[in-house]
Amino acid sequence: MSREQQGDRQDIALKQSQEALLRCQASLARARKLAGLGCWELDLASGELTCSADVVSLYGLEDCPAPLSLSDMENALLPEEREVMTQAFERLPQTEGMVSLEHRVPGPERERIIHQLTEVERDPGGRPLRLVGAVREVTGLRRAERKLELLGQVFESTSEGIAVSDGEGRIFMVNSAFSHLSGHSEQDALGQSLSQLNTHPQAAKLFTQIWEVLGQEGYWQGEMVSQGPDGQDLEHWLTVSAIQRPQEPATNYVWALRDISEIKRNEEQITYLAYHDALTGLPNRMLFNDRLNIAMAHAQRNKLTLAILFLDLDNFKNINDGLGHATGDQLLQQLAERLTDLVRDEDTVARLGGDEFIMLLEGKRDPQYSVRVADRILESFKKPFAVGENDLHVTGSIGITIFPEDGEDLETLVANADMAMYRAKAQGRNSYTMFTKAMNSKIKKRMAMEGALRKAVEQEEFTVFYQPKVELGSGGVVGMEALVRWLRPDEGMVSPGDFIPVAEETGLIVDIGQWVLAQACRQAQQWHEQGYDKLHISVNLSPRQFQQKDLVPTVHGSLNSTGLPPQFLELEVTESMVMNDVDDAIITLEELADLGVELSMDDFGVGYSNLYYLKRFPMNTLKIDKSFVQDITSEPDDRSIVDTIINMSRSLKLKVIAEGVETNEQLKFLKDLECDQMQGFLFSRPLPPEEITQLLASEARLH
User: Fold this and answer.
1) In degrees rounded to 5, what are phi and psi of residue 45?
2) What one-character DSSP code corresponds to residue 384?
3) How many Å apart are CA 30 and CA 34, to the nearest integer?
4) Which residue among 163, 222, 344, 404 is buried most deeply as judged by most CB within 10 Å?
5) pLDDT the model gives residue 341
6) Distance from the Cα of residue 377 to its chain's centroid
7) Which residues, given as ranges, of the chain have pLDDT below 50?
8) What is the rounded CA–CA span in Å between residue 337 and residue 327?
């Protein structure tokens, strides 16, 4: 082969080698581009930096003047990271192998994170010639890694127990909360389904329903009960969500458990409190009514009777007021236990509120069973209740109704038992009374009276009559007693004996009494302004009024609003009223006396007549009860009593008034005993104010 041919062949080989090299370089460039890699070289002798276009772009070196240097690359970093890169490059010549660096580069829109691999190229003698490096942006990768890290932390730190399963329900991932809530470790749970882990008898049926719903909707939630390792039931709220692409089968499921044991306990407690009395733990009215309705239906089907006992403690208010509500509560708790012990397990003892209890006695064909229970209850009251340092003796009144004789519905039976209980109280307390139809008629009448009375208070259907008080010496009128009268529309005047007890029992007497006090003070002031300025007005206080905490301010307000001087107002109280709680009564009476009003003891002689206490009361007047006056001329004992009262009053410097004087013989006897004042039909009946005004204007002596 000639030299010329050899030369051609070498040229061809060289050209082919160059083309192959170019192809390799192009392939390498494409690979770097696909991998997002940029390359750079730093000539250590000249300090000249050669960079690929990717490096220039990543570090933002487009505006740097040529030739580039390592300082240009370092200055592209965040200030706090430049020193790290400088020190790393300074150590490179003494370092074998590659060095990995990661740093942040600020940009106009976002910060970039760049990962760099760098090594030293050396000559055959081992001397460093240049630094070469490859860089790649890892901003998205690092953010994804951080997001995964956060998701992992959330997965582990959430209070819900989470398990992730494949499409068949086999668990391949759980968090620690799942192991805690389910009682199954991660090792036990992996590869198992939740239905396999739950061994509760109801679990199989539940998971069948869950998979049916998941197949249709891809989502299920509800309560799940499982059995823990110790055999105890665990209550959870389970939420299952399918993970799937649109129009494709579910690839995974997320099972989330939440402990609802505390919620269930709270629900049970709320339900219990809704049907039980908080103080005693007994059934309340709602639960009692439910049981009574069920019991009536059962009794009707089986032709049985059942009984209701309505129990109310006698004078329980005295215990609360005297010893405090805490003592009263403890008494009620002990009473609840005692009553429960006195009946059978199938019977019901409930507390309606306050000191009212009601009992349901079921399934007895013998109505006398209820009487025997009532006897046992009353007998048990003979044993005191030990509350703290006190031995409390209490009694109770019981009303009894029988189903179906006394009523065929709940409301009627309970109302009739209540009526019977009030009848027991009226007959002296500490007893029981069976309901009767006659009682029903009487109670209905009373209830009608109560309703009409409430309406009368609202519409002020009352008026005040006045009965003169006559001074025995002069025969002149020195005072008036205010007496309430009820003029009922379309029915006329209602006897005070009919409505006053109802008003007292219901508490309406308080409103009525305040109204009477204000009216009497206003009328007395009018008479004073008409010239009768020595006339006194007396007003009766009811027991309920006397117990009111605002009694003294009420009296003071009536005097202020009417302008009546307090010394012309006399308040009448009874012996029984002030002897109920002597110490409190003395305080109230002294506060009234401090207002300047006068005080009178009404119906004296029929009650306690305790002279020791009478001396302590700030009284101005004693009023002899008419029961002694009416037989004063025929009964020696009554004459002696009246004589004694008048003489005792003299020694205590009290005025004496005799009420109910109707005959001249009574008048003569009282004059002989030098009684101060009298009132009664002999002088005048109670009259409306306009007739009293006429009587005063006549200036006639009444005797």
Assistant:
1) -75, -45
2) P
3) 6
4) 163
5) 94
6) 33
7) 28, 31, 608
8) 16
pTM metric for this prediction: 0.50
Q: What is residue 242's three-state secondary structure?
A: strand
Query: Cβ contacts of residue 68 below 8 Å, gap of 6+?
Result: 48, 49, 50, 51, 61
- Which residue from 471, 394, 417 is spatially nearest to 676, judged by alpha carbons? 471
Q: Which two tokens stand for residue 54?
A: 């990717």
Residue 425 has a CB neighbour count (10 Å cut-off) of 18
- Contacts of residue 212, defined as CB under 8 A and 6 or more positions apart, other chains included, come to none
pLDDT at 130: 87
Q: What is the pLDDT of residue 585?
A: 86
- Peptide bond between residue 67 and the one before it cis (omega within 30 degrees of 0): yes
What integer pLDDT is reported at residue 31 of this predicted model? 47
Give kind and range of the element (H or E) at residue 480: strand 477-488
What is the H or E stretch that residue 224 is in?
A: strand 219-227
Report the SS3 class of residue 490: coil
Euclidean distance between CA atoms 327 and 81, whole angstroms: 78
In whole angstroms, give the CA distance from residue 599 to residue 570. Answer: 5
Tokens in use for 272?
A: 């219990």
Other C-beta atoms within 10 Å of 387: how many? 18
Contact 99, 119 (CB under 8 A): yes
DSSP-derived 3-state class of residue 284: coil
Domains of the chain are: 31-143 (3.30.450.20), 158-265 (3.30.450.20), 299-435 (3.30.70.270), 455-698 (3.20.20.450)
